[in-house]
Amino acid sequence: MKDNLFYGKGLPYLSQKSLPGKLIVIEGPDCSGRTTQITLLKEWLEAKGHAVLDTGLKRSMLVGNVINEAKKGNILGKTTLGLLYCTDFADQLENKIIPALSAGYIVLADRYIYTLMARDIVRGASKEWLIKLFGFALIPDMIFYLDLDADTLLHRTFAKYGHLDYWESGMDLYLSSDMFDSYKKYHALLRKEYEEMVNEYNFIVVNGKDNIDKIQAKFRKNLEEFLGVG
Questions:
Q1: pLDDT tens digits, residue range 124-148?
Q2: What is the Cβ-side half-sphere exposure of residue 3, based on CA atoms within 13 angstroms?
Q3: Which terminal Cβ of the chain has fewer Cβ within 10 Å, N or C?
Q4: Phi/psi of residue 7, nearest 5 degrees
């Protein structure tokens, strides 16, 4: 059992006993294979008789679409962008994640506060400020991290989208005038932040270059041991 329910002061109306469900997070950059793995995990867990909710970034009914619209002009300020994502997360935590956990669901989160923190730190935000900002976040029961190098991500991104995204390439950071070069530098910086979080937040590191079945097998093995669903 976790010693604490939240990373910081949390939400005062909640108690540890009120959340019988489990929160499982899969972290990693865009095109690391998170969504595919969550889809497979959900099918497997439901076949085992578990109620499952999957969620992820920008799925808030409150600001999910606002973020997409605000990013179109490529003029959004760094702090404003970070706070919009924080609002999106907070809304989903209170209106999706906590109700599901209270009902005994297994919640599969396609990224969590760690991606938001990594992005903001790379953009110059104070780590201490971010820790306080996300102090209301629940501590997950298990966190998987799909680790991939920038070159592999670049190839996958082109295979999936056929182009590079301004924000996912870190062009707002002026790392390089060349979008390809900026993409690789940006994702190298993100990877460094993820790596620093591995021990601090107890990530289970998974090689994102392994094939889908091998990655899924590792996820299931860990979950079988934790949930007793074998």
A1: 999 999 999 999 999 999 999 999 9
A2: 2
A3: N
A4: -75, -25
